[in-house]
Request: fold
Amino acid sequence: MTTFNTQQLEKMRTQEGFIAALDQSGGSTPKALKAYGIEESAYSNDEQMFGLVHAMRSRIITSPAFNGDKVIGAILFENTLDREIKGKPSSLYLWEDKGVLPFLKVDQGLEDKVNGVQLMKPIIGLEALVAKAKGKDVFGTKMRSVIWDANEAGIKAVVAQ
Reply:
């Protein structure tokens, strides 16, 4: 294990704070932008929309209040991982300039609710995505399923997944 990873692991193990969810994907981005004051009429395609959301995320991340003293980590959407903040890859800027561990959202959404749970949709291209994240010094990944009810079969399915 490298010193870089040892420092990150120690931060995760010992520091109090929270992990910021900055991982809106295409489906939730219009709602996030609207809450931020940007109407859908401000963009006409996905490229423009993702540019606006990256600018929003960049303003959040570069704020002096967003720092490694309070924020342990930040979950990024793949599109954010592919972009830069102040001339650096987003993941490196987070760690090197802010002291915040970069995580990458790898799930591709949720299936419909069955047996009181929502399982993750199949993650297409997971190996390549993890390799890409590793190449950009991402600390970890984030994926999720949702348990809505105390349904034994559903919970077993979540655990199995």
